[in-house]
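Hi team,

As requested, here is the filled-out complex form for the pseudouridine-5'-monophosphate run. I kept the field names the same as last time so the parser does not choke. Let me know if anything looks off before we queue the next batch.

— J.
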Amino acid sequence: MQPSPLAPVLSPEVADALNAGRPVVALESTLLAHGLPRPDNRTAADDVEAAVRAGGAVPATIAVLDGVPHVGLTAAEVDRVCADEGLAKLGVRDLPVAAALGLSGATTVSSTALLAEAAGIAVFATGGLGGVHRHANDTFDESADLTALSRTSLAVVCAGVKSILDVPATLERLESLSVTVVGFGTTTFPGFYVADSGATLDWAVDSPEQAAAVLAARTRTAPGAVVVANPLPADEQLDPVLHDRVIADALAAAEAAGVRGKAVTPFVLDHLHRASEGATLAVNVRLVLRNAELAGRIAAAHAALR
Ligand code: PSU
Ligand code: MN
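And here is what came back:
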């Protein structure tokens, strides 16, 4: 019999940490396989895990290999995720297909959150959430990340939502879906590559302990996530003028190429990395590392509450 998509295989280190109540941070694999170019993605995979450890938690990178969801990967398994050019991108709706047919794939925010929750992990780090695409009133393109976060109880540390999206519309959808959103140290909602998206949040937390307390209270309220939006410092952000120019360029290229569905985000990110001559890549890696470290601290504070 094939294993259930909700029966992930835990690495020994992750299983031990969870059994002992020690802090664990889930990491997604789509940003490695489809968001960063090879071979930089392989170095980033190690650096992100190291950043979680620096924050005080055990990293659990999640992917589906030969139909089996894995929570915590060996070095050889990370090699596979980062090297396989044909690796599928798996959202929640794709998990049953991968499980039933024995396929491999990288997990997005939506499916990583589901598998992390199933494994008993409370904190998850990524780069930027998916959301409502620009012109979604024509295309209906809204990431499955949003509805998934309305159903899974965990904290997601991110640099806001990807700035290739319609940020205000995405915040409206997060409100409709009752996803809790707090800024880390600020009510300015970050814009992924840039520190300020132009949108303002209702709430800020000032410490990992406060973020952990909000997560604990959220789990006593209703199913659903706490998004902890962690902006890059202004001196580490992408030059906002370059940002606006390359994003307009990338979105126009996606439109001209007729890219649709789950190919849109990887296409646009790849175009940005090329058009900015690696500037978006460096900033993307940097913000993921910062989020991973903060997630480690929040997981440690959360474990201390229990
Ligand atoms: N953060 C990054 N790079 C990425 C992603 C997040 O820094 O590539 C991925 C996540 O896996 C997220 C996905 O779930 O982009 C969104 O894809 P879509 O827009 O097709 O839902
Ligand atoms: Mn989409």
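Two things worth flagging: The chain has one domain: 9-301. The longest helix spans residues 279-305.

Thanks,
J.
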